[in-house]
Design goal:
Number of helices of chain B: 15
Strand content of chain A: under 5%
Structural class of chain A: mainly alpha
Order of helices and strands of chain B: HEHEHEHHEEHHEHEHEEHHEHHHEH
Distance between the termini of chain B: 55 Å
Radius of gyration of chain B: 22 Å
Largest sheet of chain A: none
CATH class of one domain in chain A: Mainly Alpha
Order of helices and strands of chain A: HHHHHHHHHHH
Largest sheet of chain B: 11 strands, mixed
CATH superfamily of one domain in chain A: MetI-like
Helix content of chain B: 40-55%
Structural class of chain B: alpha/beta
CATH architecture of the largest domain in chain B: 3-Layer(aba) Sandwich
Number of domains of chain B: 2
CATH class of the largest domain in chain B: Alpha Beta
CATH superfamily of the largest domain in chain B: Periplasmic binding protein-like II
Strand content of chain B: 15-25%
Oligomer: heterotrimer
Distance between the termini of chain A: 35 Å
Chain lengths: 252, 343, 282
Amino acid sequence: MKRWLGLYAALVYLFLHLPLVILAAFSFNSSRFTVWQGFSLHWYRAIFQDRQLGESAWNSVIIAVVATIFSTIAGTLCAYGLWKRGSALLSGSLYLSLVTPEIVMGISLLALFQWSFRWLHWRLGLHTVILAHVAFSIAYVVIVIAARLRTFSPALEEAALDLGATEWQAFRFVTLPALLPGIVAAALLALTVSFDDYVITSMVAGVDSETLPMVIYAMARRGASPVINAISALIVVVFGALVLISERMREA
Amino acid sequence: MRRVVNRRIFLMSAAGLAGCARGRPRLNVYNWSNYVAPDTIANFEREFGVHVRYATYESNEEMLAKVLGGNSGWDVVFPSHNRIPPMRQYGLLAPLDHARLPNLPNLEPRFQSPPWDPRLEHCVPYMWGATGIAYNRSAAPPPDAWADLWNIRFKGRLTMLDDPEEVLGACLLKLRLPYNSTGERSLRLAEREAIAQKPLLRAYLNAEYRDQMVAGDILVAHSWATTAQQAIDAAPQLAFAYPTEGFPLYGDNAVVLRESGRAELAHDFINYLLRAPVAAAIVETSRTATANAAAQALLPEELRRNTTLFPAADTLARGQWIATMPSATQRLRDRMWTEIKSA
Amino acid sequence: MTAASGWERLRAWFLLPAWIWMAVLFAAPFAIVIVYSLLTRGAYGGLGLPWTLENFARLLDPLYLGIVLRSFVMAAATTVICLLLGFPLALFISRAGGRKNIYLQLVILPFWTSFLVRIYAWMFLLRDTGLINTALQHLGLIHDPLPLLYNNGAVLLGLVYGYLPFMVLPVYATLERLDPALVEAAADLGAKPWPTLLHVILPLSVPGIRAGSILVFIPALGAYLTPDLLGGGRTVLIGNLVENQFTNARDWPFGAALSVGLMALVGVLVLLMLRSEREGLV
């Protein structure tokens, strides 16, 4: 049975990865059609010359980094607090936010912003997108850190208390360092989820906050273009590298 | 906790202001995709010393969804003509100061007092166009009427626009009813036609059909004239037909939003677009029909005579301007669209 | 001051950001959506005052119920296929010994790339002039291109492709915690591999299957992007319908009512799942 299982697994992995490999391969195609007509970096050059792409990529990075900082801090603290003593309401809300369809989350956040803007005299913009991204990424962070904490023994903190530390010091000097790899993994997850988001972002984005997925979507709607292949290949490579680095750090 | 909250506010304002703190005055323009030449915006920025944030949309609804709230942040948008009356009614449009628009006389006479804004109080016509049938010449005999889109020989190689107005309109015209019908009976008949057509249909696509038509996947497409012209440029075996039963006309206009605090700069921008060379350059790259007569005079011969973009007078006579729908009709159409899509 | 209350105070401070999140970015938006669902649509969009339950009454219209049903079927099909595809994979990884981590990373890796990119990859492959058709034509297997894109099958494929990792991970987590002694005991009692799988392993992996199913079913139910891009606008699922109300149709109250209905459904499913699982996800 193990042999069949192995063969099956290979097929599934092929299914998962082949489309992306093909996509990346054709980003080097000199023609825009699916007939291979020679190797070319033409589409990559086009990416770097496109101002809109550059701005939107930069927006995506800013939004992802800021949102990740906030959601990682809030999520880590929350996971730790829930580990001390659970809260059905908070756990339930986090879980619900995880499974809520993106379109519903998007419109509810849009409704919140539109409604509150009557008082605050704000507009949709980078700040609303960042808030929205924090909203949906906290749950991911909590899950990762909570899983980490499940393997952590509370006895270590108790030992620190016995030696005269305060609760905060116990957390800061005993638990936190042990959690660090998990925090890095959670931050990476939040970063990816935020960078990648289209549905929620498109609903709450403003004039100055067009993100990379929004540009890709607009391009995809206007018809296929190898530029999208090239962008996709770049995204895969960059995030793949980030994952590898984080794995290396985790094992260290 | 206060530390965290303050940091949050600080970081958010920093992120928000990062875009503003650039020194030059800014103008936010929201336009249809493919509606300017590659250097139109850059030239304006250089000449006026400003920074233009330029983004694009694919449908009026997309633009209106952002703008309706009254605090979208955009200064200049380009609604189609039949959206102007409701936008005016909702107080979304700023009145235009003709003194700041000296290039207005460049417009064609019929666009200097169009039916939707006879004194050009709120809008300046920009580009206009029509909807018809784009087809591959290999699909002989060539389709030239809406009724041809129901022909079984096109099964699986046909697309329609993903737009309730246009699809129901095409069905109405096929039935020899006016494009702007509002009566429920007429609309129900049109709906029945649309549902009958669905099995022949490949998909409901807007501009997305273009690459597939060029590649040969699609033989016949419900299309705007400008998209068709862009396809024809890429593949000469394609052509465009203005259906014999009649066809809808639309005009896209530049408007200044009332919420904009940069009305003067917005006027300068619109005036810049009205310049003959600028408009001509836009036509050459985007393949649209301009409302600007002075620009048309500057176009190369083959573009000026291009019947896809600038049809002959007798063809044009069959066209009907799309009317603004009363809201009850619009709700009925929306529901019908869901019914058609679910069929 | 006892140690217990010291922890309590720390906990209270630590949970504060999360409570703020819950109140401001989670509960408040939904509350507003509920309020919207009770209002009436303005003339050209926006909201108007008469409070009304009409939007909820519209939900019972057979047209919309049909859409809900179709979305359910699509989500259920996605979940079942993900389960069929994902369970053996999770089983394989859980038995892979030292290389578990690598195999796990390989499953998650596509997830790290953009969702849009993954959908686009399938558009690229399935189009009439896409790679699959071009290859088949080159090999002489077909003459005319197969219509692989813009139908329910393409949407299903896209959904399965996007959500497979969400099924594999929870099932793997449960299988990994499975006590190997149980499987050994079954073998000692003379059971062959297949019956062992059916009668020992499968029942014990139910918690993971349940978790994975929820994580696939609910997002698939509200999927919007996949049917939009891969379906060619030919079908309307709940996600498309909701999005449509907020853009094209400009009927915010009805869109809000649809969302409330959808969330009620989601809430019921989540409650059922949390109640029957002692160890939640968080």
